[in-house]
Design brief:
This protein has 10 helices and 9 strands. With about 280 residues, it is an alpha/beta fold. The N and C termini lie far apart (about 45 Å). The protein binds adenosine monophosphate.
Length: about 280
């Protein structure tokens, strides 16, 4: 496994893959890897010969007052895990390498970035779009794997790739959960013992909403109310949003008669957790 930390080094390594006729798949991450990330790496092996993983805590996607400074980092451990997963290349640049001067170009999505997580994290998806565009231009992957865990991110990246004609096939892998249903996240390490015990409330809320749709509920407002009620019954949890939106447009439908995304953001103490579930009313 090769570790490259510079853009020039990544381009040279990419050239070697091309010369050897190896297709390349990229798994972008912010490191502090867990089973969710590793599932993306396993998926990546099915898509291309050379598996690249980027590890970069992207300052551009953190707002003022967010957790950029305390975001967990452990490159040595990440490298060990990726070695075990037979990754071929790890690209772990510094912030100075990625952003040598203040960035003037921004990525906008015509308002699609202002709903759900974007409503409370202004600028977040602009930062995500920027770093993903840069990574695609540096690594020139044939494919890239993202997690459904960050559903709005996956949605916007598909749009970015389509609108900017990036020649990259986007693959979205399912959410990996702890045994009690909590979606794996590097941020779970922030949780106190009590908060960790309360954290599966997000998954329980999604299951309750899914059950209601299974039983015939078709009013998105009523489904959102179920999500809200389950979360508010947990004393440690503070709801940021509970949404039932169309999978195709992230907008609230008048009725659930096409695939929907149930999405939640909840604060437990100072930790912000997100989770989601996709539901096709035709198939449940
Ligand atoms: P992050 O390091 O949090 O930026 O995540 C890197 C990639 O891993 C993103 O595409 C995430 O959606 C994905 N990911 C994070 N957690 C999970 C999980 N529990 N299951 C599946 N994918 C995940």
């Amino acid at each position: 496994m090769d570790l490259v930390t510079t853009i020039a080094g990544a381009r040279a390594r990419r050239k070697a893959d091309r010369a050897a006729g190896r297709s390349v798949v990229l798994v972008p991450t912010m490191g502090f890897l867990h089973e969710g990330h590793l599932s993306l790496v396993r998926r990546a092996h099915e898509l291309a010969a050379s598996v690249w993983v980027s590890i970069f805590v992207n300052p551009a996607q953190f707002g003022p007052g967010e957790d950029l400074d305390r975001y967990p980092r452990d490159l040595e451990r990440d490298l060990r895990l990726l070695e075990e997963e037979r990754a071929d290349v790890v690209f772990a640049p510094s912030a100075e390498e990625m952003y040598p001067s203040p960035q003037k170009v921004t990525i906008g999505y015509s308002g699609l970035e202002d709903v759900l997580c974007g409503a409370s994290r202004p600028g977040h998806f602009a930062g995500v779009g920027l770093v993903v565009s840069k990574l695609f231009n540096i690594v020139e992957p044939d494919a890239a794997v993202f997690g459904q865990k960050d559903a709005q991110q996956a949605f916007l990246i598909r749009r970015l790739v389509e609108d900017l004609s990036f020649p990259v096939r986007i693959d979205v892998a399912p959410i990996v959960r702890e045994a009690d249903g909590l979606a794996m996240s590097s941020r779970n390490t922030y949780l106190s013992d009590d908060e960790r015990r309360a954290a599966p409330v997000l998954y329980r809320a999604l299951l309750a909403a899914r059950d209601a749709i299974r039983q015939g509920e078709r009013d998105p407002r009523a489904v959102e109310e179920i999500l809200r009620q389950v979360i508010t019954r947990e004393p440690l949890a503070n709801l940021e949003y509970a949404a039932c939106v169309g999978q195709e447009d992230l907008q609230p439908p008048t009725r659930i008669d096409r695939p929907v995304l149930l999405a939640l953001a909840v604060r437990l103490g100072t930790t912000r957790l997100i989770d989601n579930m996709t539901i096709n009313p035709e198939e449940i």
